[in-house]
Specification:
8 helices; alpha/beta; globular; 12 strands; 2-enoyl-CoA Hydratase, Chain A, domain 1; seven-stranded mixed beta sheet
């Protein structure tokens, strides 16, 4: 298999360039705004596992197909069974990211279009974010009667507390622009229009050219600085979700009545 050859099919694409040592993982459901259904969730878990064992891969870029969205979180059409108990809430996206699957190779997010809700499970486990100027970031959970728990916990460690709180509490009424995300440090580079993937790849090629042991040790050290905080926060998340979420049918009603208007800041 030559450089750049695709290794998997929809809902996910994995491309590995053996010459540069860079893999590109692409969320490939543009017709669903790259929302994650259970098939994509399972395939992401598998792909992170593949990349753990492929020593030719030394850096990874995570992107979304199409121009409209990087990822819009969990697909609302996904059938996610839950135990009938407040003590056993199963979160379908908890293991969707690279760190949750013990991958300690650097992952760079290339964000174009919308990144919202469950997308933050992925962004929260990437080393840094490169964004197109048209990218937007928001969290609609509260609008639809859902607790933003894991998502907000990730974002509270990626941006100032007030910004994370505003994003979570304003719901679908407001979206953070790529410029604002860059100004507060959520985004590390703001590219020319359409340039996010190319810029992320350029960074990945540089990092992949360094000794892998040093790079992976640095990734692990960076994550160690915040994983204890996340672990303590995550321990509370299931109970907060169980207590605060509206019944599923009420969430559906609110979602069906949503309005398309929002403020961009």
């Amino acid at each position: 298999m030559g450089p750049g050859a695709p290794m998997t099919t929809a809902p996910l694409r994995l491309t590995i360039d053996k010459d540069t040592g860079v893999a590109v993982v692409t969320l490939d459901r543009p017709d669903r705004l790259n929302a994650i259904d259970l098939a994509m969730r399972d395939e992401l878990v598998d792909v992170w596992g593949v990349l753990r064992f492929d020593d030719s891969v030394r850096a990874v870029v995570l992107a979304g197909a199409g121009e409209r969205a990087f990822c819009t979180g969990l697909d609302r059409g996904a059938d996610v069974p839950q135990p009938n108990s407040p003590y056993m809430t199963d979160d379908p996206l908890l293991r969707v990211g690279p760190k949750a699957n013990d991958l300690w190779k650097p992952v760079i997010a290339a964000v174009s279009g919308m990144a919202c809700g469950g997308a933050f499970y992925l962004i929260g486990e990437c080393e840094f974010v490169v964004a197109d100027p048209a990218a937007t970031f928001f969290d609609p959970h509260t609008t639809y009667g859902m607790v933003s728990a894991y998502e907000s916990m990730h974002m509270a460690l990626r941006m100032p507390y007030g910004e994370a709180a505003r994003m979570a509490l304003m719901g679908s009424a407001e979206r953070m622009s790529a410029r604002r995300a860059f100004d507060i440090g959520l985004v590390s580079e703001l590219t020319e229009p359409g340039g996010a993937l190319e810029a992320a790849l350029a960074c990945a090629v540089v990092v992949a050219g360094y000794p892998a042991e040093a790079v992976q040790g640095t990734v692990r050290a960076l994550w160690a600085a915040k994983e204890a905080v996340l672990a303590q926060a995550f321990a509370q998340a299931p109970h907060l979700i169980s207590l605060g979420n509206l019944p599923a049918e009420r969430q559906t009603e609110l979602f069906a009545g949503r309005r398309g208007r929002f403020r961009l800041r």
